[in-house]
Specification:
Shape: elongated
Strand order of the largest sheet: 7-11-12-17-16-15-14-13
Low-confidence stretches: 1-11
Bound molecules: adenosine-5'-triphosphate
Radius of gyration: 34 Å
Mean pLDDT: 93
CATH architecture of the largest domain: 2-Layer Sandwich
Structural class: alpha+beta
Number of strands: 17
Number of helices: 15
């Protein structure tokens, strides 16, 4: 044998001392005990599994990674009615709540604003372990639930589907929610002012917006908002308007230099558009005749008010007219009446849901819309004891007061105020043909707050240049805009509407952050 070969254990080992022998014996006994315990635990687990008659009916499902198309038929919770009683249904929903009485667990399953009760009860096929699993699963987890739909023995008043319940036969979690929620949905749903009960303040809501947005109220608010955009689009499209898209990165501030976000643009600077104003007018000069656009508008306004955001959605329109800019106000008034009617018929449930948490008077309007002149508005304010100059812009409190006076006199929450003083309007506003201190411009109001500003625009390039200079605007910076009228442009006018304000005021909410999904204000840039 080579020298490097190890000696056999028998040859190399010294006989153990008595103490050593004892030590070894102890270690061997310990290892044996450990193995026995392990074997016992495994046997117990196996026997428990064997005893868990439901072990294949519940649990955490493997990650859905699009490995297969199961072809299973899913049912929407909103469709679970008595007509389906007796059938097997399969739903994917959030586990809103679970409440156990030991042998059975009552669940509330939720899809957006629809909820249904489900019951997991110990039976010949459902084990105690399965009931425990449903009871322990954290709220807001997403689950696949199969079961038999039956008539509920008594109305389930806490759910949207009050007449039925699901007797659960299978229950799998497909996405587990962290057990500690940053806010409780039932707290987020409490009416404001109910300080005695736990409630959620606005910053906590906005910091945890994805949870906050799951409340029925928020589900309803953003469905109303979607309807506002849809009704705006559909009405204008039906009137022959063309939807356009305007650049959001621009070379010069569209509404003068103030309140503009500057961004770097390769070796130069650019600005985020404060409105699509100049571009929608250029589309008119390009013969589109009637255009509208829905898009982000940016304002670097350091105003922390209930109605200003740094980024909002503008619903803008512009159209050529024949003789008089009232052709434009008629279209816009008609659009609003159609929108309010559409909301009443298409969103009645959502409006009622929002008002449950945030009570408000129903929104009133006239058809055709009420139009007052600025002078008439000022006269109403003066009659109410307010001191307003003929050429002053209306302050926010005066706008609100005027809204109240108009409501008292005409019973409408929507009206148009026409013929603003020229001095308070942008440079491109057409002056009044008779009174040079007045202009062909208007604002529109909902519940006493401005939601639209608009006007006839100057379509004569020379006149436009004069007016820009008077406003101390560097005309070299808006050369493309002015030049677009050089080759002929029809008389035209339009307006810009703030989408979030329309929804806030229509629903009688008191803060624009409630109608912006992820609001941006001077203090908030996340989430
Ligand atoms: P306000 O006087 O209320 O600040 P504005 O006169 O600056 O508004 P315009 O520039 O005429 O408003 O914009 C047209 C519409 O856009 C407004 O009537 C309003 O509905 C909406 N809007 C304007 N600024 C904001 C903002 N910061 N946040 C949300 N909406 C806005």
């Amino acid at each position: 044998m080579a020298d490097s070969q190890p000696e056999s254990a028998a040859e190399g080992q010294q006989p153990l001392s008595k103490k050593g022998q004892k030590k070894q014996q102890k270690a061997e006994e310990k290892a044996k005990k450990k193995a026995e315990t392990q074997a016992r635990l495994e046997a117990e687990a196996a026997s428990r599994d064997a005893q868990d008659i439901s072990k294949d009916l519940y649990g955490f499902a493997p990650l859905i990674q699009s490995a297969e198309k199961t072809g299973r038929t899913w049912t929407r919770i909103g469709d679970l009615t008595l007509a389906k009683a007796g059938t097997t249904v399969l739903v994917r929903a959030r586990l809103q709540t679970s409440r156990s009485t030991g042998k059975q667990c009552f669940l509330v399953l939720r899809q957006q604003h629809f909820t249904v009760q489900a019951i997991v009860a110990v039976s010949s096929t459902i084990s105690k372990q399965m009931v425990k699993f449903t009871e322990d699963l954290s709220r807001e987890s997403i689950v696949d639930v199969e079961g038999t739909l039956s008539a509920a023995p008594e109305k389930v008043v806490s759910c949207s589907q009050q007449d039925v319940e699901i007797a659960v036969t299978k229950f799998h979690c497909i996405s587990h929610a962290a057990p500690r929620l940053p806010l409780q949905l039932e707290d987020a749903l409490r009416p404001e002012g109910d300080e005695a009960q736990p409630h959620v303040n606005q910053d906590t809501r906005l910091d945890n917006r994805i949870i906050d947005l799951r409340t029925v109220t928020n589900q309803a608010i953003f469905r109303v908002e979607a309807a506002v955009c849809r009704l705006f689009r559909d009405y204008l499209t039906s009137q022959g308007f063309v939807e356009i898209h305007t650049p959001k990165i621009i070379s010069a501030a569209s509404e003068g230099g103030a309140n503009v976000f500057e961004v770097s643009y390769f070796k130069n600077n650019a600005y985020l558009a404060q409105s699509p104003q100049l571009y929608k007018q250029m589309a008119i000069a390009s013969d589109f005749e009637k255009v509208f656009t829905v898009g982000a508008v940016f304002r670097a306004e350091d105003s922390n008010t209930h109605r200003h955001l740094c980024e909002f959605v503008g619903l803008d329109l512009e159209m050529a007219f024949y003789d008089h800019y009232h052709e434009v106000t008629e279209v816009i008034g008609g659009m609003f009446v159609n929108m309010f009617k559409g909301l009443e018929t298409q969103c009645a449930e959502e409006i009622a849901t929002v008002h449950q948490q945030y009570p408000a008077e129903p929104f009133k309007y006239l058809n055709p819309s009420l139009m007052l002149t600025y002078k008439e508005g000022v006269a109403m304010l003066r009659a109410a004891g307010v001191d307003v100059g003929d050429e002053d812009d209306l302050s926010t409190p005066n706008e609100k007061l005027l809204g109240k006076l108009v409501k008292e006199k005409y019973d409408t929450d929507f009206y148009i105020l026409d013929k603003y003083p020229l001095a308070v309007r942008p440079f491109y506003t057409m002056p009044d043909p008779v009174d040079p201190r007045s202009s062909n411009s208007y604002d529109m109001f909902m519940r006493g707050e401005e939601i639209l500003s608009g006007a006839q625009r100057i379509h004569d390039p020379q006149f436009l240049t004069e007016r820009a200079k008077l406003h101390n605007i560097d005309t070299t910076k808006i050369k493309d805009y002015i030049e677009s009228f050089k080759f002929g442009a029809p008389p035209h006018g339009g307006g810009g509407i703030g989408m979030e304000r329309v929804v806030m005021l229509y629903l009688g909410l008191h803060n624009i952050r409630k109608t912006s999904m992820f609001p941006r204000d001077p203090k908030r840039l996340t989430p």
